[in-house]
Amino acid sequence: MSKGSISEHILKTIQQSTNDKVISDFIIELIYEEANHIEHWRFKSSYNTLIEKYSELWSQKK
Amino acid sequence: MIIEKIIFENYRQYKNVEIPLSSKKLNLFIGKMGVGKTNLLNAINWCLYYNEPYLSRKEEDIQLPIMNLKTIADAEKGEIKDVKVEIWVKINGEQPLIFTRKASFIIAGENNHPTPYRSPEFKVRSTDDRGNTEIYEGEDAEHYVERFVPTGIKEFFFFDGERLDKYFKESTRENIRHSIFQISQTSLLNSISENLNKIKQDFRKEAGKRSPNIDCIRTQLETIEKNQLDAKRRIDECKRQIKIANDNIQEYEEKLSGVPKVDDIKSKITELEIKLNDKELIYESKITEKRDLLYENGIILLNYPAIEKVIQIIAEKRKKGEIPPTGDLKLLQKILDDYTCSICGSKFSSGSSQEKSVKKLMDGIDLSSEIGHELMRIESPLTIYQNIAKKFNENIRKISQDIESYKKDLDEITKNIGDLKSKIIGFNDEKISNWAKQKKSFEDVRDRNNQNLGVQEENLKTLKKDYERLNEELADELKRESKLKTIKKKIDFIETTVNVAESIKNKIMEQIRKKISEETKKKFFELHWKKESFNEVCIDEDYDISITNSMGFPCLGSISGGEREILALSFTMSLHRISGFDAPILIDRPLTMVSGESIDYVCEAFLNIAKEKQLILFLTPNEYKGISQILNSKTCHMFELKMTKDEKELVVIEV
Amino acid sequence: MSKPPEKIYIAKTDKEKYEKLEKEGFFEDRNHKDQFLVAMGFGVKNKVHRSFKERHEFFWRKDLGIEGETLISAVGIYFAYDVDILTDMSKVYGIAEEYAHAGIDLLYNKMESQQVGTFWKQFEKDIHEIYRSLNLPK
Q: Which residue in B374, B385, B389 is closest to C86 by CB distance?
């Protein structure tokens, strides 16, 4: 498992850990972002974009 | 994943060297101390991570340049020279991945000292099956390093022998937790939680700008979050200190279990010695008392014939009525001589009746009054002497019995002291006493930290309550402000996500911990030569590694250097297997802490490991001497490292 | 009745013996009076006394106390078999000094051949024997 690639196990565990697909998809997207960047990267912009998208979906589902 | 070859250009002792490594056999490098074996390890670190963690003191102190000394000597002033290390790596039989780090220096200054000329370059070259080469630089190149051996866990691939030994001696919980954290990629989830929390704080700040109430609550929440972090850090630190203390306590308990309680025994001995001293003083005084008695009684008994005789004489005189004296002979004689009565003064003549009366009186007195008085004077002391003499036997017996009794006590105390001393003979009592003191001091540390832990945990509970209360207040305030609906929605979403991420992290860590624990145990029993000596190897929920002997007792602190080496290697192998990082293992002087019969077994273990993973070892000729039967050119791919005559360059000879 | 002498004397030649016995332990911490009385006792016990010419002052008679004076008087009477000797106290003391002169010799010879610890054991044994031989009523 390298930083550039995510292990199947972690992806599977994320999906299995919550019934909320929005949350699990969100976390999976974030994990790929983290894996593709080095430490201390400028994360806020990417994160805010994803939060915007997924929080809307999440609140709609609720 | 194997290292195919390493190419050096002007790197320290390695002027122009190419080292081809085997993937099928154990790679063995033999060279004297100081020849540059460890710098091979440094070279790999420098190439991949741009640091040299194993420089010798000499190299650090004198700040020897990284450039080869012969290259510096041969260079012209102003010439630019490169230092380069290139590592060719093959992954699953594919085309090699080439990691190259190059640093350029200009030879300048008075002493022709190499000065950095350009920023060092780091590139990774990758060729696909069709022969297309892609070159990665900067961040992209660093990604490849992370794929090969991530920085966070490189210490589990590139070791020095001493560190391997220390690995399970010092508190390992953090080492193990850290390694699992790295290989499980839960560090990514950690980053996600941290970053989401930062964004949550931004949203709160934004909401705070629109409502002073919200801003106030937000500030309080941030303070509590900070305090919670501090409390958690302190709790972790307390737990770490408790673990270190417990490990040390256990180590000292194991040391002390086979030895006498020296401090207790010594204090008993001191107590008895004081008692002995006091009794000896009394005993001596009794001896003196007896001697005084013998002396005084001796005088009496030696002179007793005289005493007895005089008492007899006095008794006779008493019987006769001579004592007390009835008349004064001297006075009567004077009357006769003076022919004058001393009492009435009347004179008389010779032949007179008065004269006759006086003579008659004198005849009646046998004993002079002086003698009579003297006899009376000495009668009482003589009687006393007689009584003393009679009581002699009784008195002497009494004191002799006392002396006997004290002698018995003294003998018993002396024997007890002797018995106690014999319990600690042959033991280094200073060392043992020191162990006991050390154990006590660790117990104090543990107790203090336990106390502190309790306080911090209570503190954390209180903070949690406050946080929940304030969070609710914030949620209510956000609800009230319709303009902040979107922000509230995002904050709620983030909080839910963070909770899920945390639980996923814990779940994965736990799963991996279990797997590593099982793998470590399996590998350890596979590699160890005395399987029946041990019962269990495991890594528990606190990430503590424990090993129990066949009697069921924990024995991590007392296993031999060889066994520790096997345990560390088993753990490393399990990490590799589970992490999927298949990088080779390099160990500098792996037999430093191994001795005796273990050496052969450890060497056999190396050969076993080399069957499934590329293993590279560095040894001195002395270390190699004892194991050449097992590790030789038949079983290993061997290299000799030798310095040139001018000692500025290393030559690598394949054996 | 003649007055007793002011001082008690030992033979000059005995001075060294007394000193040696003091040094070697048997007379250690004993005053001269007691040393003299023990020596005298040895002489009386063994029924030996010897005159001497050159004398050395040993201690004051007053140091004897009534107990010491009693012993010396008793020894004088014992020697003379007559209480009349008490009329001549200088003679009485002279007798005591002669017994002491003979006694110190005996004591010294005995001590010379043994360690002081052994001598004390022997001394104790001797005293016990004397006691037994006296058949004193209890």
A: B374
